[in-house]
Amino acid sequence: MYVIAVYDVAAERTPKMLKLCRRYLHWVQNSVFEGEISEVRLKELIGEAKEIMDESHDSFILFKNRHKHWLDKQLVGKALSETDQFL
Q1: DSSP code per residue over the chain
Q2: Is residue 6 part of a domain?
């Protein structure tokens, strides 16, 4: 499946979330990541994120789709990461 992940965590937890998300997905911009991921790996990512987060204050949002070709993505401005994910 294709996933876009966005997190908003306290500053002291940001480095850990960044490192975690980079292990599973491609960094796009600040706290935004995307990429193909299996259901099992996605569950691992969510589980590890919950260990880092304070769920009463932080958030981790996942947009899921069957495949990136079903996603109409438009970039306005400069891409911050060089990936082959941009259409």
Answers
A1: -EEEEEEE--GGGHHHHHHHHHHHSEEEETTEEEEE--HHHHHHHHHHHHHH--TTT-EEEEEEES-GGG------S--SS--TT--
A2: yes
pTM of the model: 0.81
Q: Which residue type sits at 27?
A: W
Q: Is 81:25 a contact under the CB 8 Å cutoff? A: no
- Quote the CA–CA distance of 9 and 32 in Å, as a whole number: 12
Q: How many structural domains does the chain have?
A: 1
Domain that holds residue 15: 2-69
Domain of residue 33, CATH code: 3.30.70.240
Question: What are 20-70's pLDDT values in tens digits?
Answer: 999 999 999 999 999 999 999 999 999 999 999 999 999 999 999 887 777
